[in-house]
């Protein structure tokens, strides 16, 4: 089966600018996660979708981060405005019975 | 809440040395436990998993046993290779928390020839 697709792979923006990341999970997978992985740390959950509904967004900084999954397939994560501390790799994941499949991630650098 | 504590790195070993990376967890219910690996410049890949107490996960010469009594899931390999150089993450997932994954901070392993 095809993997989790994410784009772009890299993004550099200035603080206070906005940015969006895209994820297309494994076909047919209802659950989708967005994780943030800061350098030197493990991934931390930002938001979990089940189809097009939000299951858990308790750790999403909602004043600047937003995410949607309008048709229950692909998803977009947005940051507006970005801060220096948002520099991280943003990972999208699709769970299965054997574990979770992760995309390659988008490496965001805020300068 | 759920959490995973991993042995801090970095770890540097000579080729063919024995590897242990310690991992302990805290969970509300009965989690599944995982080891993920991240090779330089690549994404997270599932290395092995165990879903219940006393299960042993294994893959590519790596092993880990789910120890409920010590809440541990230590990763071991009898003889490491240069190609094993990567960052290793211990993780758990359980239905009680919506099956989301909780990760440790990662342990960087470098194997030198």
Explain briefly what this protein structure is.
The complex is a heterodimer of chains A (111) and B (113). By secondary structure, chain A is an all-beta fold.
What distance separates the N and C termini of chain A?
Answer: 37 Å
Tally of DSSP helical segments of chain A: 0
Major β-sheet profile of chain B: 6 strands, mixed
| Relative strand content of chain B | over 45%
The structural class of chain B is: mainly beta
Q: Please work out how many helical segments of chain B DSSP would assign.
A: 0
Mean pLDDT of chain B, to the nearest integer, reads 93
Shape of chain B: globular
**Percent in helix of chain A:** under 10%
Distance between the termini of chain B: 41 Å
- Oligomeric state of the chains present here: heterodimer
Q: SSE order of chain A in H/E notation?
A: EEEEEEEEEEE
Structural class of chain A: mainly beta
Overall radius of gyration of chain B: 14 Å
Give the helix/strand layout.
The complex is a heterodimer of chains A (111) and B (113).
Chain A: E1 5-7, E2 10-13, E3 19-24, E4 31-37, E5 44-50, E6 53-56, E7 65-68, E8 75-79, E9 88-96, E10 99-102, E11 106-110
Parallel strand pairs in A: 2-11
Antiparallel strand pairs in A: 1-3, 3-8, 4-5, 4-9, 5-6, 7-8, 9-10, 9-11
Chain B: E1 3-6, E2 11-14, E3 19-21, E4 23-26, E5 32-38, E6 44-50, E7 56-59, E8 62-65, E9 75-77, E10 86-93, E11 101-103, E12 107-112
Describe this structure in words.
- The complex is a heterodimer of chains A (111) and B (113).
- Chain A is mainly β and 111 residues long.
- Chain A is built from no helices and eleven strands.
- Chain A is globular, with a radius of gyration of 13 Å.
- The N and C termini of chain A lie far apart (37 Å).
- The model of chain A has no long low-confidence stretch (mean pLDDT 92).
- Chain B is 0% helix and 50% strand.
- Chain B is built from no helices and twelve strands.
- Chain B has strands at 3-6, 11-14, 19-21, 23-26, 32-38, 44-50, 56-59, 62-65, 75-77, 86-93, 101-103, 107-112.
- In chain B, the strands form three sheets. In chain B, strands 2, 5, 6, 10, 11 and 12 form a six-stranded mixed sheet that branches.
- In chain B, a hairpin with a 5-residue loop joins strand 5 (32-38) and strand 6 (44-50).
- In chain B, 38% of the residues are buried.
């Amino acid at each position: 089966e095809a993997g989790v697709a994410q784009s772009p792979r890299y993004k550099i923006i200035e603080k206070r600018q906005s940015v969006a990341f895209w994820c297309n999970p494994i076909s047919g997978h209802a659950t989708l996660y967005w994780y943030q992985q800061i350098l030197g740390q493990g991934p931390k959950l930002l938001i979990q979708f089940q189809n097009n509904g939000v299951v858990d967004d308790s750790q999403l900084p909602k004043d600047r981060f937003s995410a949607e999954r309008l048709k229950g397939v692909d998803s977009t994560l947005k940051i507006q405005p970005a801060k220096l501390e948002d520099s991280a790799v943003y990972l999208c994941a699709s769970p299965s019975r054997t574990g979770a499949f992760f995309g390659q991630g988008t490496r965001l650098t805020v300068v | 809440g759920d959490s995973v504590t991993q042995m801090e790195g970095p770890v540097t070993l000579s080729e063919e040395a024995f590897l242990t990376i310690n991992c302990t967890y805290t969970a509300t219910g009965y989690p599944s436990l995982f080891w993920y690996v991240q090779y330089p410049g690549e994404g997270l890949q599932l290395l092995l998993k165990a879903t219940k107490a006393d299960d042993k996960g294994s893959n590519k010469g790596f092993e880990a046993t789910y120890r409920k009594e010590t809440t541990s899931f230590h990763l071991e390999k009898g003889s490491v290779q240069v190609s094993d150089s990567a960052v290793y993450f211990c993780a758990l997932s359980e239905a009680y928390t919506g099956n989301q994954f909780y990760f440790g901070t990662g342990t960087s392993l470098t194997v030198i020839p």
